[in-house]
Specification:
CATH class of one domain: Mainly Beta
Number of strands: 2
CATH architecture of one domain: Ribbon
Radius of gyration: 32 Å
Distance between the termini: 83 Å
Helix content: 10-25%
Strand content: 15-25%
Largest sheet: 2 strands, antiparallel
Order of helices and strands: HEEH
Structural class: alpha+beta
Strand order of the largest sheet: 1-2
Number of helices: 2
């Protein structure tokens, strides 16, 4: 158990080893709960947000039919393939 010193500004400093073990960096949030026998400190862990751009391509839709090629959308190729020269 560690003993903490309260500064003239009401601040306390957690030992570096404890901060490392708890994964607390600058700006970490700590919740203070007042209990009948003293105070309880609890590290508030924010819920990580996900960037939708980073998820692009994770879900694949099942293929439907024959895969298309770029040439399938070229009007000149379509005309050349048709029997009468019409698409």
């Amino acid at each position: 158990m560690s003993t903490l010193l309260v500064s003239s500004k009401g601040q306390i400093v957690l030992p570096a080893e404890m901060r490392r073990r708890l994964g607390m960096g600058a700006g970490a949030r700590v919740e203070v709960l007042e209990e009948s026998d003293g105070l309880k400190l609890r590290v508030v862990r924010p819920v990580a947000t996900a960037d939708l751009k980073g998820m692009a391509g994770l879900v694949k839709a099942p293929a439907r039919g024959v895969p298309r090629r770029l040439e399938d959308f070229d009007p000149a190729v379509l005309v050349a393939r048709s029997p009468r020269g019409k698409p």
